[in-house]
Design goal:
Strand content: under 5%
Order of helices and strands: HHHH
Shape: rod-shaped
Number of strands: 0
Number of domains: 1
Number of helices: 4
Radius of gyration: 28 Å
């Protein structure tokens, strides 16, 4: 009878150990799925930065053709290209190089939250600097184009400048709305990842 009890207890012990091992494996799998989901949430931001890099040469070529037609100075052109390059470099430093795959390892998640919060603050500073710079550039370009309108040598140039002024106002407003929407989406993505990390790292009750 005693031997039966001992064997039964030993069987229950082995079953309990197997159950614990299965639960541990399941927890590891769940952690990996959550971590992969967090990394994927941030992927679109990196793709957006890559798109910005690809657009800089396009902007440089297009505006090099617009400048002489609209009577805009090359100083204005240089300011535009410099502003674009600085903004994209800042985006890369803030959104790409500041977070690596190792930051999503379970042992690094607490530090990762700090990096994500710092990323949000850096974005806010970037917006506070870049938006006034964009508005200043638009006003500068608009004033130069408007002053060049009476000196236009052809109807095509007059129509192009007039259309550019109207399009610049509309495009500027739409561009600022788009920039703010992207900014808010980036900040929201950070908040979602931070919430996931907090859920993953909070002590069990």
């Amino acid at each position: 009878m005693n031997n039966d009890n001992i064997n039964e207890l030993e069987t229950m012990r082995r079953q309990l150990e197997d159950l614990k091992a299965q639960l541990a494996k399941q927890e590891i799998v769940n952690d990996r799925l959550i971590i992969d989901a967090m990394k994927k949430k941030m992927t679109w931001i990196k793709k957006y930065v890559v798109l910005q890099v690809c657009l800089i040469p396009v902007i440089a070529v297009v505006w090099s053709a617009i400048v002489p037609i609209c009577g805009i100075s090359w100083w204005n052109y240089a300011f535009l290209i410099a502003m674009c390059c600085i903004d994209v470099f800042a985006d890369y430093r803030i959104n790409v190089s500041s977070i690596t795959d190792d930051d999503y390892l379970r042992g690094n998640l607490v530090d990762t939250v700090t990096k994500l919060l710092r990323m949000k603050r850096s974005r806010a500073v970037q917006m506070a600097v870049s938006v006034p710079a964009i508005i200043a550039w638009l006003l500068w370009a608009g004033i130069e184009a408007y002053n060049a309108l009476p000196e236009a040598t052809s109807e095509f140039q007059q129509a192009f400048i007039a259309g550019g002024l109207v399009g610049g106002v509309i495009g500027g407003i739409c561009g600022l709305i788009f920039a703010f929407s992207i900014y808010r989406k980036m900040q929201r993505t950070n908040d979602e990842v931070i919430a996931q990390i907090n859920d993953l790292t909070k002590p069990e009750e």
